[in-house]
Amino acid sequence: MIGELGKKVAVVTGAARGIGQTIALAYSREGAKLSLWDVDVEGLDRTAREIRVSGGTALALKTDVTRLGEIDASVRATLERFNQIDDLVNSAALKMSFIVPRDRRSTYHFWEIDPDRWRNLLDVNLTGVFLCCQRVAQEMVERRTGSIINITTGNETKLRRGYSPYGASKAAVEAFSLSIAKELKPYSVRVNLLQPGGAVNLRGQTDPSLLPYDVIVPAALFLASDESRDSYGEMLVAKDWQPR
Ligand SMILES: NC(=O)c1ccc[n+]([C@@H]2O[C@H](COP(=O)([O-])OP(=O)(O)OC[C@H]3O[C@@H](n4cnc5c(N)ncnc54)[C@H](O)[C@@H]3O)[C@@H](O)[C@H]2O)c1
């Protein structure tokens, strides 16, 4: 059985769409209060509205995860409204389409990558995760409880030809997460990695070659709940994950 999220407050980055939105909606259905962070204000408002219409509670905070000042302001706003942060899901990311269009991905070479775009991608996918973990973990350490969930991808994507910036960012997130998991364990703050297990459909899309858009939900609920109280530094593959 998946634990109740009834008394939990969850911060979800990248909550305007995609996997972040799916996780935010699922957490809300389980009773969590949501602090939604993204740079896409319209998308954020859509997610927040959907949560509120179905009876949930959501705070939409425009937050660029590469900016410590914005993260700090959003942490303060979340604490002011909800008093605590129990779960942090780092889902915000830039994908390979930010670097090169899909139709060029199998032929282009890494030496064609614009170094500024490389830096931007690493800034969001890696430094953004670092900054959000750094700021939120301090609140969790103080309360001696919390769960941080960093979203990554499988080796089939990380090591794929043409995916070097994205793959490097996710490999670095994994190393960072597994290392801080050891630092935070003495404070009962859990850090775990979660990956869908392949490319996922967009919501409403039903391409049979892709995973269902909500494949991530059961494992994401588990990691946010007290059911995962003994999980530290684990990597869950959502498509294969079974409730314990
Ligand atoms: N979609 C997949 O098939 C898939 C597979 C494996 C892993 N993942 C991972 O799952 C996570 C979510 O992927 P997705 O498909 O939902 O992506 P997406 O592109 O649909 O959504 C990413 C969100 O991050 C936001 N974002 C971008 N830069 C930001 C910034 N600087 N600050 C705050 N928010 C920012 C975007 O506005 C967007 O709402 C990512 O970490 C991705 O790498 C996705």
Distance between the termini: 8 Å
Mean pLDDT: 96
Overall 3D form? globular
What is Rg? 17 Å
Strand order of the largest sheet: 3-2-1-4-5-6-7
**CATH fold-level label:** Rossmann fold
Ligand kinds? nicotinamide-adenine-dinucleotide
What do you see in this structure?
With 244 residues, the chain is α/β, with parallel strands linked by helices. It has a single domain (9-240), classed as Rossmann fold, CATH 3.40.50.720. Helices cover 42% and strands 15% of the residues. It has 7 helices and 7 strands. It has helices at residues 18-29, 41-53, 68-82, 115-143, 155-158, 164-184, 217-224, and strands at 9-13, 33-38, 57-62, 87-90, 146-151, 189-195, 235-237. Strands 3-2-1-4-5-6-7 form a 7-stranded parallel sheet, sandwiched between helices. α2 (41-53) links the parallel β2 and β3 (57-62). α1 packs across α7. The protein is globular and about 50 Å long. It starts with 8 loop residues before the first strand and ends in a 7-residue tail after the last strand. The relative contact order is 0.15. The mean pLDDT is 96. Nicotinamide-adenine-dinucleotide (NAD) binds next to α1 and α4. The site of nicotinamide-adenine-dinucleotide has 28 residues, from α1 and α4.
State the gist of this model.
The chain has 244 residues and is of the alpha/beta class. It is built from 7 helices and 7 strands. The chain has one domain: NAD(P)-binding Rossmann-like Domain (Rossmann fold, 3-Layer(aba) Sandwich), CATH 3.40.50.720.
